C-alpha cells in the first residue's frame, strides 16, 4: 500500500470517531416522554434509557415515573451518551441521558422510580445503578414501598 492510501484510511477512521463523538454528546431536544424509561427526541427517534426499567402502565409508580421523566426532560435539550450496543431489538437508541449536570438514568433509580436492569454489554454504570437501587430499596422509595 502506498502512503496516500494509508493516510486516506486514517483520515476516514478519525472522521468516523470524531463524528460519533460529536453526535453522541451534542444537545438534542426531547419532543415527548413515552413512559418512565423511554423518550422521543427531536428527529423523531425513540431513545430507551440504558440500565433502568421503569414500571409499565398498569404497575405501581408508573404515573410517578412518567411524570418525573417529563418534569426532567420533556421539551428540554439533553445530552446523550452511548455505551457499547447502539440499539435494542426494537430499533430504539440505547443511551444514557443528561440534563445539565443531572444524570437522568441514575436519578430515576435513586428516586425509586425505576429498577436497575443490566443488559450486556451496556454496563458502564452498572455498579452506580446497583448502589442507587439498594439505597432506594432501603429507603422504601416508590416501587420499593
Textual characterization of the structure:
This protein has a single domain, classed as Beta Barrel (OB fold (Dihydrolipoamide Acetyltransferase, E2P)), CATH 2.40.50.90. The longest helix is centred in the N-terminal third of the chain and has 23 residues. The protein is an alpha+beta fold. It has 4 helices and 8 strands. Strand 1 and strand 2 form a beta hairpin. About 3% of the residues have low confidence. The strands form 2 sheets. The chain has a 5-stranded mixed β-barrel. The radius of gyration is 18 Å and the shape is globular.
Strand residue percentage: 15-25%
CATH topology: OB fold (Dihydrolipoamide Acetyltransferase, E2P)
Number of helices: 4
**How much helicity do the residues have?**
25-40%
Mean pLDDT: 89
Biggest beta-sheet profile? 5 strands, mixed, barrel
- The CATH first-level class comes to Mainly Beta
User: How many domains comprise the coordinates?
Assistant: 1
Biggest β-sheet: strands ordered side by side in the sheet:
1-2-3-6-5
**Unreliable segments (pLDDT under 50, ≥5 consecutive)?**
18-22
Amino acid at each position: 500500500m502506498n502512503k496516500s492510501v494509508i493516510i486516506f484510511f486514517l483520515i476516514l477512521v478519525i472522521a468516523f470517531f470524531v463524528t460519533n463523538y460529536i453526535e453522541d454528546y451534542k444537545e438534542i431536544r426531547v419532543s415527548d416522554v413515552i413512559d418512565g424509561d423511554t423518550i422521543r427526541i427531536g428527529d423523531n427517534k425513540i431513545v430507551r434509557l440504558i440500565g433502568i426499567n421503569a414500571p409499565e402502565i398498569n404497575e405501581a409508580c408508573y404515573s410517578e415515573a412518567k411524570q418525573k421523566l417529563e418534569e426532567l426532560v420533556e421539551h428540554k435539550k439533553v445530552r446523550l451518551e452511548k455505551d457499547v450496543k447502539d440499539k435494542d431489538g426494537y430499533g430504539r437508541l440505547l443511551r444514557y441521558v443528561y440534563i445539565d449536570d443531572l444524570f437522568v438514568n441514575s436519578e430515576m433509580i435513586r428516586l425509586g422510580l425505576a429498577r436497575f436492569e443490566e443488559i450486556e454489554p451496556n454496563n458502564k454504570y452498572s455498579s452506580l445503578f446497583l448502589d442507587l437501587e439498594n439505597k432506594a430499596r432501603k429507603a422504601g422509595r416508590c416501587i420499593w414501598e
